[in-house]
Sequence to fold (298 residues):
Amino acid sequence: MAIARTADIRPEIDAALVRRLIDTQFPRWAGLPLKLLDPAGSDHVIYRLGEELAVRLPRHADAIGQARKEFQWLPELAPHLPLAVPVPVGVGEPDFGYPWPWAVSRWLEGDVATVDALADSTTAAVELAHFLAALQRFAPESTSEAAREHLSSWSLSERDRATRDAIAEVDHVFDATAMTELWDAAMGAPGWDGPPVCFHGDFHTGNLLTTRGRLSAVIDFGGLGVGDPACDLMIAFTLMTAGSRAAFRDALGVDDATWLRGRGWALATGLNAYTSYAAVNPRVAAQTTRQITEALIG
Fold:
């Protein structure tokens, strides 16, 4: 019998499994009602547990390090950031056939940020710039080298082959010539020449919460890492319009080379999501179409 690769595992996750995991590993929360959050994104199944907690279980192997990463780093980061972030309260262990660590955190009230609500808001754009500036000022070098090994460290060049393949795949949908020109320019841009700084790693509208129409929280720090902060500039192309994007860039003080690499990140991640999910998810199709289009505009 062939053994499935870890990356191919997609465990079945339902309320009965989550109930057993909670009741056996965190008996103080046994009996609290569970409510599935749907949709919850491509990386995790999320249940609300009672009124104050959330349970997050990775859907696939690429997300399995997030529970312990957030449990370690978010308590250190939170005091330095101007928006709320998740408050981890426990990491569960594999059991009952579920193969990976999973997380319990405090429930964060709010609605997922939308383009309709915030795209033209220079206030929101500046708030996001201030959040990233505060994140970049956080000094992970104050912790042990072993702890820092779990932080992501990505290079745009690692996406070169996949991005060029995706451009060829969608050349009937988007302008392949314009995408290739942008990608070539991003790949040829000078690299980050400052000290390594913290980045969120997945900074898009789905990971921003609002309350009463204002930004209130940033979630999903599974991509938290140290290095070139250009990857976080994707928010300028997933959420903002030209005017708010200019305010964001000015508030964050982004140089031309970093901005160009940020456009490259927006193009690469947009293409990856589009080719993976657009055919089966109209919401993702619309979001990534906008992201790719705005990245081409700049």
Summary: The first strand starts at residue 34 and ends at 37. Residues 1-7 have pLDDT under 50 and may be disordered.
